[in-house]
């Protein structure tokens, strides 16, 4: 079954580099994600000024995934608590 949605191309700037993101997400969402990544990279660079761009990108990814996993765990614990209360 083919996906009828059209891919969109969104050009964003992250840490002074331009990237074209192609996908099904809303361009506004892509720009919001790009702003978040840019802010995180600048935040980390401020506290670690000697990091090269590659290490900065990896640390930014690790931080973002860490935040995501914490949120997932929190949501999972919340659902488990709600299920226990319903029993």
From TrEMBL:
<dbReference type="InterPro" id="IPR053712">
    <property type="entry name" value="Bac_CellDiv_Activator"/>
</dbReference>
<keyword id="KW-0717">Septation</keyword>
<keyword id="KW-0132">Cell division</keyword>
<keyword id="KW-0963">Cytoplasm</keyword>
<dbReference type="InterPro" id="IPR007838">
    <property type="entry name" value="Cell_div_ZapA-like"/>
</dbReference>
<dbReference type="InterPro" id="IPR036192">
    <property type="entry name" value="Cell_div_ZapA-like_sf"/>
</dbReference>
<comment type="subunit">
    <text>Homodimer. Interacts with FtsZ.</text>
</comment>
<dbReference type="GO" id="GO:0000921">
    <property type="term" value="P:septin ring assembly"/>
</dbReference>
<dbReference type="GO" id="GO:0005829">
    <property type="term" value="C:cytosol"/>
</dbReference>
<dbReference type="GO" id="GO:0000917">
    <property type="term" value="P:division septum assembly"/>
</dbReference>
<dbReference type="GO" id="GO:0032153">
    <property type="term" value="C:cell division site"/>
</dbReference>
<dbReference type="Pfam" id="PF05164">
    <property type="entry name" value="ZapA"/>
</dbReference>
<dbReference type="GO" id="GO:0030428">
    <property type="term" value="C:cell septum"/>
</dbReference>
<protein>
    <recommendedName>
        <fullName>Cell division protein ZapA</fullName>
    </recommendedName>
</protein>
<keyword id="KW-0131">Cell cycle</keyword>
<dbReference type="GO" id="GO:0043093">
    <property type="term" value="P:FtsZ-dependent cytokinesis"/>
</dbReference>
<comment type="function">
    <text>Activator of cell division through the inhibition of FtsZ GTPase activity, therefore promoting FtsZ assembly into bundles of protofilaments necessary for the formation of the division Z ring. It is recruited early at mid-cell but it is not essential for cell division.</text>
</comment>
């Amino acid at each position: 079954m083919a996906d009828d949605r059209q891919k969109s191309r969104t050009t964003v700037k992250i840490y002074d580099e331009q990237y074209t993101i192609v996908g099904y997400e809303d361009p506004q969402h892509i720009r919001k994600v790009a702003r978040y990544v840019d802010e995180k990279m600048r935040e980390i660079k401020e506290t670690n000024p000697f990091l090269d761009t590659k290490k900065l990108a990896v640390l930014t990814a690790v931080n973002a995934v860490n935040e995501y996993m914490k949120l997932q765990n929190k949501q999972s614990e919340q659902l488990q608590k709600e299920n226990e209360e319903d029993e």
